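Section handout 9: paired folding examples.
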Amino acid sequence: MSGNSLQNRTWMQLNLGTLSTPLAFLGVFFIFWLFSPEHRFTDPRNLAAMAKLAPDLGVVALGVGILMIAGEFDLSVAAILPFSSYIFAQLLIFGLNPFLAFLIVIPFGALLGLLNGVLVVRTGLPSFIITLATLMFWRGVLYVVSGLMPISILRWIPKDSSFAQLLTGQIGPIPMQFIWYLTIAIVLGVILHLSKFGNWIYSTGANVDAAKAMGVRVNMTKIVCFMILGSLCAFAAIMQATRLGSFAATQGNGFELRAIAAVVVGGVSLRGGVGTMLGIALGVFIIQIIDNGLILMQVPVFGINTFIGIAVILFVIINNLTNRGYAAE
């Protein structure tokens, strides 16, 4: 596959993503605006709440999406996130400035991602199995060292502190969480769609053997993607802990599957090599819209996952039909 072919691949994925996922986003938005009681779905307070909550999962999903485009999975995000939050809380208790603790925890998340990546490429085992094992391992370690006890961090990071305002404050009506989410999505989008490394990600996910024949450093590409995801988990952990004012061992529970669901809804193929950053970013909000809209329509909370499951199946079918012609090339 030539360099021009790789560039064409990238732009083809971008075109597919800009066509289907935004239409789905507008569709679900319109449906819940239409059917929510008194159109409360579009109440500014409700939209602001979604903009605050969605980035917790969204930042993680951005990294999950890149990794899935590279052809791998990571279930351990649900352990990396709370473990990073715990380390952040402990550093604050130790007396570190929140900004310095932040600069330590982000590499810590990357280190856990590095471990996942090395295990996957060195053992040759499916990443699904490896990261399921590391999920259970790190979760067990966290439960032991934390005793499942919450830790308040308000003493070190008051709600009006500069650190809290930077991560979870507001610029006018716009929550900082949404601004961070948008910024990260743009940066990763530039890397994915406009850089040589982005082409490596696509080619690695599409066909490993062909990528190796082209000189792509496949193992390095996968490891870096795992590290990016680990860093984003740590960032999301700090952002969530700052918003909540505490560490909780249950932070991030279920994120491993909800992130995959959001990424799939956003048009990323489970086989790798297909997807866009725009689609991933919108997929997160499609899941959040479905979740929020069903609550407003008084659907029982335990029944919401049923509808999300149906949505995921429908989107997988649609994405397979959309990409069938391309995959045959």
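Moving on to protein 2 of 2.
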Amino acid sequence: MIKTKQFIDITKTNLLILSIRLLSVAGAILWVTNPNLYIATINKEYLIFIYNAIIFVYVLFFVLRFTIPQKTNKCEHFCLMTFIFDQIAISFFTYNTGGFSSPFYSGYFVVITFSAFVLGLKNATITAFFGALFYILFNYSYGIGLYNLADIAYRIIPFFIIAYPTGILSDRLEKHLVEIEKLNAKLKSKNTKLRATLMEMEKMHNQLVKREKEKTMLDLTESMAHRLRNPLMSLGGIARILDKKIKKGANLDEMQKYIEYIKNESKNMSELINNLLEMSSRNIEMSFISLENLIKSLVSELEESIKQNNISLELNIEKNLPPLRTDKNKLRISLRNIIDNCIKVMKHGGKLTINVSKSTAIDSTIEITIKDTGPGIPKDILKNIFKPFESGGSVKKGIGLPLAKHSIEILGGELYIESEIGIGTTFKIILPM
């Protein structure tokens, strides 16, 4: 077992161990130089020389540690050797500071605990064994008899009691650390693969988006071409008819119906082009508006169309609605297109209901509901109702509803539609306040 990667290879850990060793030696020197030391025959100069040599050895250990290859048996053996030397030094301290009763006795436990954390159960047991051996050998001269044999055993046995559980915990810790390291390596590998996959997916997504945009642009261009070709051909034909009639001297009344047709078709094409320009614009000019005033103004503009189609109007606007911060022009165009669509589908009369209130489902939003009693929209058309020009089957539509949805979404809102054949269609708009 080699725990050097987790413990001994860390410079701070090495400095901590060196500091504890040097402090222990300094403590021993202060002890033996104490003038009140009860060992009168001790050669203090000799002891200080030995202690200085121990300091030199400890510093040498600290330097040599960084020259030994990491995560090898040499590193483990070197660490074990330093801990065994610690036991020799501690035994020397105890011998010169009172023998079996020396206060430096606790130093054995410090060394054993460190060895257990660093090297595991096996090497901690070896360290404990040498600690017990040196403890007896160094202090043998103090006398070992039946009277203190039990006391010595009582002092030695805790060495192994400390080494065993601490070593087991250390071994388990290393096992978990190794497992975590393997899992991290696997996770890193999977993250690398996932990153590559995501990059590939993003690349494919960008390609799909590009193709979809190209397809949408082609479809829109084709639809625009078909939509504008017929009225342009009609205008060309009418222009030729007018040219002939003018040459024949036709009067103004005879040409009036052709002029009206030209005016109507020009207006329709102008509206179509303006709607396309509005749909392509993403410029937003936000301001606070009164939603009640905006809707009443729209209803007033469309009042004549409502009367001509024999439509009854029900307008329900919640009182004291707060001002709405939005782009007035975009919202106006969206609401007008929706209301106008509802009016056009009720050619033989019906009921138009407009409700405006705070939303009860979503906080800080306003809900606008526009409902007609028209014929309803078939499902095959309804699913494509917000696509420009083509709404399903052979039914050709304009760009009014797609523009309405596009503008409302730019304003941060949502547009939903529900329809049932024979009952009518409901448009629901959710706008942030």
